[in-house]
Structure formats: C-alpha cells, structure tokens
Predict the 3D structure of the following.
Amino acid sequence: MTELSGAGWTLTLLPALGGAIGTLRYEGVDILRPTTDGTTDPLHSACFPLVPYANRIAGGRFGFSGRNIALPLNFGDHPNSLHGFGWQRPWDVIEAGPDRARLTHVHDGGDGWPWRYRAEQLFELGEDGLRVTLTLANASREPMPAGIGLHPYFAIPPGTRLRLNAARVWLTDDIQIPSEPAAADHFGDWAAGASISDAGFVDHSYEQWDGRATLERGDHIVRLTAEGARDLHLFHPEGESFCCLEPVTHLPDAFNRPGAVFDLLPPGGSLVLTMRIGVERG
C-alpha cells in the first residue's frame, strides 16, 4: 500500500489490486467508499482505472482493420468483456512522494488484445483535492482502437443529491449494451439535483456530459470534474450507500457500434483523461 497526504486529504493506493485507490478521505471523512478489508477484487475498491477500453464490449468481440478481436470474458458468467485489462493486473510504483505518486501498467500484446500499450496513473493531492491523470500510450507499430476511464465509488449518505448535465442517457438491452437514447432525466432529474440516495437501480451512460458533477452530502459538497471524458457512466445499485460517477472517453461497446465515437491512436500516440475530486462545505 502507498499512502499520500496533504492539505487535509489522505489517499491510499493499492498498486497490486489493479492500480486501485484504497481510500480517499478529507479531514477524516470518507469521500470515496473505502475498500473492503482483505479483498482481492478491484470491484470492492474505492476506484480503479479502465484501460484500454471502458465498460462493456458485447460478447468480448469486435472487428477492426480486417481482423476479428476476441477478448476474454473477464467478469464471471457475464456475457461481455468488462473494463479492459488494467483493473485486473498489478501496477508498478515508479514514483512515490508525500503528496504524489505514479503507477504504470504495461501490456505486451497478448491475452486477446493484440496491441502493445503502456498505461500510467499520476495521483496528486493539493488544496483543490485529488487529481488523477490517466494516460494510455500505443506502443505498437500499427493504429490501436482505444478508450480509457476511471471508476470511483463515491460514498453517499442518506439524502445525497446528484447534479450533472448531459445531452442524453442510453437505455440498454438485456445484456446491458446500449440500445436506444432517452432524455437525460429518464432516471432522475439530475440537472435539478435529484436524490441519488433514493434512486432505483441505474447502470447507464450519459452522452455528451459537460465534465462536471456534484454530490450534495449535507455539510459537504463533493465536486467531480474531468477533462478528456466525453461521457459519464452512472452506476447506482438500489439501496446501496455508494454511487459510481465514471468519466470515460466512449460509450459501452463503442468498437461495435456504427458511428460511435472512440479514439484511434497511431503508433506512439497517447490518450489522456484527468479527473479531479474536491470538497467544499455545504
């Protein structure tokens, strides 16, 4: 475990657990849901990275540049591939100081993803809170389809209200692949600050998100901002005391969807996403 602190913030990192965040606290208060003691599952962590794609790939398969790509089905009996490779691989600590750390993960081109890549997370604490910069670089000799994101689990006490703005939300089919767009207030009027604590089950992507979201937690307002994230995936299991606000560069299954937007990295090219989490008194 790697520990950082500064300006009232404390952060623990779990490099061996998919480069995950263990805890994020401000003045002793949990901002992210703390990682379950003794877990070996990144899904029980406070946050983990999504590389080299975000969310789901239907059936773990897609076509690209005349070849058929078959990815491992990496989430139990779920029929899709989920969240890429980085969250299920150990990351190396290449820099660790009092208030910043840098982790890396390198993929050699095997396990169904034929492109070599290098991913990096830079964590920095300061007066404005936590900044995480996630970078994915194509280390192959040919173009690589790419996507990245971060998967923070925000602690939400009873009565927490969520505010965000996006163009639309995508409804899903029976295997949680986007099927049709709907109005952005379909699951809750988040633009007006609806209660996320009282919301039902949500596991859907918001397209053309404006890069900002807030969680009003009574005496604290938690602010999430992101750069380089076109979309936001919202996950809220009904009755749980957390929600995930996941800044991502593409919608689920983008590699299979005609007209969908995702990044194509040339050899040596890179993709960067920055997430900031801050707190102010309510």
